[in-house]
Each structure stands twice: as structure tokens, then as C-alpha cells.
Amino acid sequence: MKRALYSFAAVLVFAAVASAHDPRTVAKDFSHTLTVEGAGKLTISYKSLHWNEAAYAQTKANDQLRQRLNSTVWRKIGKFDNDFDVVIGGTQVPKGSYDMGISFGAKDDFALSLRGGGKELSIPLQTSADGPEVTYLSFDIRPASDTDSFVIEGRSGKFRSWAEIKVPYLAPHEHSEGAAKKP
Q: What distance in Å separates the CA atoms of residue 78 and residue 31, rounded to the nearest whole number?
């Protein structure tokens, strides 16, 4: 009897593990890369989490639940790897490899979380809630109007959150006397 019970339990555990890795039900992996000639790459890789409005509303209203999810599930949704220093939303981010996460407060105030190299950075994001519903979390890095500026944007649900990325390596600068000028 014990043996049959243990066998049944083992089958249940195996079935639970097998279904947990069903590629149709788990978040998909995405990555985006910005390549700067002469400096290297900036790559974000992340899990495209599914938006759940009911769970978001419950979490937003419950401080304990929100703190727990911000410090566990959403603390590490991917990686942020940069071969060169950047400034995101006014926050210095030295070159390196960081665990990337997101967090939010009771007033829809989102932040990008980066942890690595002994640093823990929380970068406030500008947020609007006027966009069409986006079912899965997505990030984008795109050029802005200046040669040294880009935008990182995250979208999920009705929210669109973004911050400016400055790349000091690309900032306008003076060339020394006698330096060969390119045509």
C-alpha cells in the first residue's frame, strides 16, 4: 500500500513538473541589443510576462503583497548587460552585467531595477496609462533625437513606462588640434 502511494505521489510530482514547463504556458524570452561602434553592446534580455489586470489591481491595493512581488517575482525578469557606461533617467549605470527587474507602487509609479557588481539601482520611469492594452510585457530600445540619446520603454497592460538613455561615449565633444578630421 505504501509503495503504491509513493508511486502515485511520484507520478503526480512528475506530471506537475512536466506541465510547468509547457512552452505554451510559460513566458517567452526576448532580447534587444544596441550596438555602438567602438564601444560595444547594450543588451536587455527578459521574460515577457503575461498581463493580468485583476492580479495587478489586487497587488496595487495591498502593500504587503506588492512588496513581496516586487522583491521576488518581478525582482529578476531578465538581464541588462552593457559594455559601456550609460545614464538612464539621470541614474549612472556603469558598464557591467545586471539582473533586471521591475517594480511599482500604489500610484502606478514604475521603476527599472538593476542589481549587479555590488550595486542595486532603482530607476524611476515616466509612465502613462493611455495606451491600448498590451497582453505581454515588452521592452524596446530606440533612438531619440540626439546622437547620444536613446529611449528604453516597457509596455504591459494599459501602461507605457520609459526613460531616456544617454551614452556618454557618443556625446558631442571637441577634437584636439591636429587630429585628422573625417570628411
A: 9
Distance CA 123, CA 146 (A): 21
**Cβ count within 10 A of residue 55:** 12
Reported as type and span, the H/E element at residue 66 is helix 63-71
In tens, the pLDDT along 164-179 reads 999 999 988 776 765 5
Grid look-up 507520478 returns 11
Kindly state the helix (H) or strand (E) to which residue 183 belongs, with its residue range: none
Q: Is 96 exposed, middle or buried, given 0-12, 13-18 or 19+ CB atoms closer than 10 A?
A: middle
Give the cell for residue 106: 500604489
- Cβ neighbours of 79 (radius 10 Å): 16
